[in-house]
């Protein structure tokens, strides 16, 4: 028997405006993300600066708006001054995070100029692991300072006269994690972040600061970490970071498909922690979320752990997870969760952009191609415009081992607010193995849904290579020329969702 669900959307009920920075990504000096990823001089598509044009084109198609750099765990052992100036004068060093010899060919200037050419906003991280206040403030001065000061003049001497104007800055990375070089407890980090952030804002008061939240909800210090760190930094920072990765463990497909509910709970708990600090301070300020690492990552089942990596050179293949249609459905569902928290999550970064748990893959001297997870991200980035509507879903639940009962159907919707022929997008996920009939109720909107995209889960193991990605795309990614409407009436549209599927539909709407 076909299950049924209902989704209510109304123009009067809106969650918040979609910040375009929600569709960010991440480039860390890890594995082949940089070398033979975005950068490969000598490749047939390389531009005059050595960056791969095929990867840049796919990045634009993906719809990426922000790119976080240079880490990640990498940043906590990074001396940024050693990676500016003439490349021939730079010295390789051992990156302690990923046990790789970093050649230092790509540094601050090369990355920021790549981002500028590709039209993406940079999100820079400073090293608060092995370094501190002075180095962080100096990097802001190097990037954003006007001529006439030490570090700005060094940038100019290195060939860049105009300041880069970097707005978003991360105060370190995952400093609660024992794996982090320079790991600190919440009080140590909170004090350091406050002093570094204060100095950075004295250099450039216009910047936005992201303070480290917990590395995951599973950390023993979760919640307490947020409240302690914000007790030192609340008046100074703009955002607190969140990181989360999801995977199918032990064949527990139901829990994996319910990952969006876990992300939803995580966001709610971090918001509650931040607001509790604000309430104690009697502050009207609201700290927002920078969800600057999220993805499907087979961390438990495929990654041996940093301590087990041999010391390697020449851009080793590390964490090159290959994705399935099932992974793509989950990524799409996680994006729905981010849209539904548009009021508190203005910034996010899919980790990472290329080769390392990424939607884009490359071969050295070879092709670049899209992984299955590329499709829901690119479609959401393209269609989600204006405000996120506060959708109300009534659906049966499914029981999962990890997360308890979770909704069988999830939904999100966006509308640009135009009174006539406004652009609308509806995103729906069916987490069950059976079709679900959804009654989409829109009493305040005259809604006309056109085509879109549907991704369905597969039951085959992921296999490395562009051939596998092409097979998944051919069999499980479907362009919809028209909405799969089974019935319609005034204020109501009925759709049937395929089993274990993510569906995005676009159209027009006007207030009824």
UniProtKB/TrEMBL annotation:
Keywords: Carbohydrate metabolism, Glycosidase, Hydrolase
Domain Alpha-L-arabinofuranosidase C-terminal intervals: 292-501
Protein's name according to its UniProt entry: non-reducing end alpha-L-arabinofuranosidase
UniProt-recorded Gene Ontology molecular function terms: alpha-L-arabinofuranosidase activity
SMART domains: Alpha-L-AF_C
Similarity comment text for this entry: Belongs to the glycosyl hydrolase 51 family.
The keyword Coiled coil belongs to this UniProt entry's keyword annotation: no
Subunit structure: Homohexamer; trimer of dimers.
Reaction equations catalysed: Hydrolysis of terminal non-reducing alpha-L-arabinofuranoside residues in alpha-L-arabinosides
The EC number(s) this enzyme carries: 3.2.1.55
Keyword Hydrolase included in the entry's annotation: yes
Coiled-coil segments on the chain, per record: none
InterPro entries attached to this UniProt entry: Alpha-L-AF_C (IPR010720), ASD1_cat (IPR055235), GH (IPR017853), Glyco_hydro_b (IPR013780)
Organism for this UniProt entry: Cellulomonas shaoxiangyii
GO biological process, alphabetically ordered: L-arabinose metabolic process; polysaccharide catabolic process
